[in-house]
Amino acid sequence: PRECCPTMATETTSLTDTSSTEALVSSSSNNNSLHKHLTLFDLVCVGVGATVGSGVYAVCGLIAHSQAGPATFISWSIAGVAASVSGLCYAELGGRYPTSGSSYVYVKETFENELASVVAGACLTLEYVGSASAVARSWGDKVVEYLKAYQGEGSGWKILLFLLEPGFGINPCAFAVSAAAVLILLNGVKESKCVTNLFTVLNITLLLFVTGAALVLAKAENLTPLIVPEFGTAGILRGATSSFFGYIGFDEICCIAGESKNPVRDLPRAIILTLIIVTTLYIAASIGLAGMVPYADVSETSGFPNGFRYRGYEWAAEVAALGELIALPFVVLITIMAQPRLQYAMSVDGILPPVFVEVDSSGNLVQGLKISGLLMTVIATLVPFRHLDDLISSGILIAFTMTDMSVIMVRRTSPRNNPHLLPRLVATFIVSSFLSGFLLRIRLSSEVSDSGVSLATILACSATLFIGSRIQTKCPNKGCNEQGLFLAPFVPILPLCGIFINIYLVAQLELTGCLMIFGYLGFAVGAYLYRKNRRREIERMVSMHETRS
User: Fold this and answer.
1) Cα–Cα distance, 198 to 49 (Å, whole number)
2) pLDDT score recorded for residue 401
3) Which residues contact 79 (CB under 8 A, 6 or more apart)?
4) Which tens digit of pLDDT belongs to each residue from 405-430?
5) 46-63 residue pLDDT tens
6) Are the C-beta atoms of 354 and 347 separated by less than 8 Å?
7) CA–CA distance, 250 with 34 (Å, rounded to integer)
8) pTM for the complete prediction?
9) What are phi and psi of 167, to 5 degrees?
10) Measured between alpha carbons, how far is residue 193 from residues 116, 190, 323 in Å?
11) Rounded to whole angstroms, how far apart are CA atoms 107 and 405?
12) For the ranges 148-157, 162-171, 259-268, 493-502, which has the lowest average pLDDT?
């Protein structure tokens, strides 16, 4: 496995001054490189801490009320299976390439295509900056809702509510929590680690209480019927797509791999432990919430506190509210921590400016953190949570898909007589999976039962299976030395299943969500190509000038 080092900058097409980047990376390697100080426990705390708060407190109520009803736990289970499949692929690649950058690094190393790695980097940016912004905004909305519930008297109370909710979509509380997270991270990675571990333990303790109390108060009649006609099977699958917002924890682990003491051993273990812990908590919490309150009465923004209040347990509502107020700012802290590490990896390769590789004496990527923190703060302050969820979830799913593809590319190869067969088959499999998912969505809709749609769905699914079988039979194993590495089982079947599930869930998005994610990626690719062509033009002009001189 290659570490992020000066030589990597010379292996890719640079869009910036690569000599400046190499000088900064060399200085960083000799003096202030990323500190290797994270243990297995630290990595699990990052993974769990970045996951359960956003999943339980931010989207569980939304899915129960608007998408899946009592079957919310099935949505979480489907998402958990998909995340676990991709998680095993992350576990292998995290051991193979134990450097900062996560999916971006994996795609770069296996595809040997800079454009593909830029797409991966764009999806990860959507994950980290977008997720941190969404959680900060969710926290700000909850604070305003809690204050409104107290219904204080006097002009001072009205002025406070006006300041916290001035209108025009602005949320000052989201600004405050975003800025506070950035300030904590600027104090150094070691101090942030201590805060992370402390709040993870506190968060899990509160969450166990909330989940246990909800399960005790659950009523069987609230879970019947399990699949309500209003949402149907399509609603459960739609909920599975939304729930991916809560499955970014193990990707965070991979993005800080460069700071792990023993990444080859600890990363796979941390990923698997994180997935087991968070999936179990999600399923239990969703059963408790849907059983405690009829799904139509579940609050989209504050499910558990309002649920306990609905049942008349005000003290439990206060504890749940405290859990939300403590957990969500911590999720903001952990999520945005990964973005400067991604920018570091992309800057080392010359895709981003060299400013992003600057490391201070505390091992902190100061400039990268300031820039990503500013972007997060602006989005959180101005953009409501409901506009971010689907966009972020689809970005996560695409990043998972590219990681699954990377495992196939690193373990399988094209036959000698057809050297481009494997990448072509994988690309075709993705297109066929999206078409199958889209047609299945239409077929499962209660409004459509057309025989033509049924036939098209069968043909698309059959084509997907055929393409997958071709990858299995026509593309042999590479047979490279893999001793001592964690290996994902059943390759290529396992990653192909992960790709299909991920793309299928992307196909469940509404038209607006699909347009948003493809528009975002189109903008990222367009910006990259523009800068690349601009750089080539400048180099050509410099070369002509030197020739004339």
Assistant:
1) 10
2) 94
3) 240, 241, 243, 244, 246, 247, 505
4) 999 999 999 999 999 999 999 999 99
5) 888 877 877 888 789 989
6) yes
7) 20
8) 0.80
9) 95, -175
10) 32, 5, 20
11) 8
12) 148-157
Using DSSP, state whether 360 is helix, strand or coil: coil
Burial degree of 202 (CB within 10 A; 0-12, 13-18, 19+): middle
pLDDT at 362: 64
Reported residue count of the chain is 549
Q: Please give the average per-residue pLDDT across 347-365, as a whole number.
A: 80
The residues, ordered by sequence, that sit 6+ positions from 354 with a Cβ below 8 Å of its Cβ are 16, 17, 20, 21, 23, 24, 347
* Residue 439 to residue 441: CA distance in whole angstroms: 5
Tokens of 479: 């047979």
Q: Which two tokens stand for residue 393?
A: 């979830």
Coil, strand, or helix at residue 420? coil
DSSP per-residue codes, 424-460 = HHHHHHHHHHHHHHHHHHHHHSTT---HHHHHHHHHH
pLDDT for residue 217 is more than 60: yes
Cα(153)–Cα(282) distance, rounded to whole angstroms?
38
Q: Which pLDDT tens digit goes with each residue over 87-128?
A: 899 989 988 888 878 899 999 999 878 899 999 999 999 888
99: nearest Cα among 49, 34, 41: 34
